[in-house]
């Protein structure tokens, strides 16, 4: 058993007969009243995100997990195929378990969280950023913008990302996987 002081991003807990992963948390100590922890929890079975507030010091049931590196092989409908980089075993996961499936490129190495009690994969953690090639974007028109103008671009995985006007087709861009946002252009 853990308490609310053990809450951190990525912690897997049992709550309301489901397994959740902590996406965000904030310890709050108001001037009046008791302290509490405000959290955003993502259900690992349905993928839904809910907000919950725990009173400070409350016991929470954490789940023992281990992380393993897997390489993404290929998608097949709503199923995604991965291979363990140590023992080359392959597993298939559903799309709702993956944080940002649109940014997953074949050959990408991800971290999969596995429940140690029943060896079931719980969630897929993407790297902090990925580098993808822009396959389609309209040319940027200068002069009709004030500041920080962006345009939609399609990357090699098929995902849509807003990029600055100077990005052209064929450019490689670094994308933040948590927000799905453009970070920078990558020079080769």
Automatic annotation (TrEMBL):
Subcellular location(s) of the protein: Cytoplasm
An example Gene Ontology CC term for this record: cytosol
Swiss-Prot/TrEMBL GO biological process terms: peptide biosynthetic process
InterPro entries: Elong-fact-P_C, NA-bd_OB-fold, Rib_uL2_dom2, Transl_elong_fac_P/YeiP, Transl_elong_KOW-like, Transl_elong_P/YeiP_cen, Transl_elong_P/YeiP_CS, Transl_elongation_fac_P
Keywords recorded for this protein, A-Z: Cytoplasm, Elongation factor, Protein biosynthesis
Main location: cytoplasm
All copies of domain Translation elongation factor P/YeiP central, residue ranges: 67-122
Pfam families: EFP (PF01132), EFP_N (PF08207), Elong-fact-P_C (PF09285)
Pathway: Protein biosynthesis; polypeptide chain elongation
One GO MF term attached to the UniProt entry: translation elongation factor activity
Residue ranges annotated for the Elongation factor P C-terminal domain, each copy included: 130-185
Similarity-based family: Belongs to the elongation factor P family.
Function: Involved in peptide bond synthesis. Stimulates efficient translation and peptide-bond synthesis on native or reconstituted 70S ribosomes in vitro. Probably functions indirectly by altering the affinity of the ribosome for aminoacyl-tRNA, thus increasing their reactivity as acceptors for peptidyl transferase.
Protein name: Elongation factor P
Origin species: Lutibacter oricola
């Amino acid at each position: 058993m853990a308490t609310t002081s053990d809450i951190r991003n990525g912690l897997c807990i049992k709550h309301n007969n489901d397994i959740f992963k902590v996406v965000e948390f904030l310890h709050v100590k108001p001037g009046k009243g008791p302290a509490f922890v405000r959290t955003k929890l993502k259900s690992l079975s349905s993928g839904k995100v809910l907000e919950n507030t725990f009173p400070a010091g409350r016991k929470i049931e954490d789940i023992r997990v281990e992380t393993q590196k897997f390489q993404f092989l290929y998608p097949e409908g709503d199923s995604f195929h991965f291979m363990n980089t140590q023992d080359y075993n392959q597993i298939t996961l559903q799309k709702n378990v993956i944080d940002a499936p649109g940014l997953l490129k074949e050959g990408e190495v991800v971290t999969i969280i596995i429940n140690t009690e029943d060896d079931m994969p719980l969630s897929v953690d993407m790297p902090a950023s990925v580098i993808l090639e822009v396959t389609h974007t309209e040319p940027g028109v200068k002069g009709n913008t004030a500041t920080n103008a962006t345009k939609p671009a399609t990357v090699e995985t098929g995902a849509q990302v807003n990029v600055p006007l100077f990005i052209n087709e064929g450019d490689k861009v670094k994308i933040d996987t948590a927000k799905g946002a453009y970070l920078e252009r990558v020079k080769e």
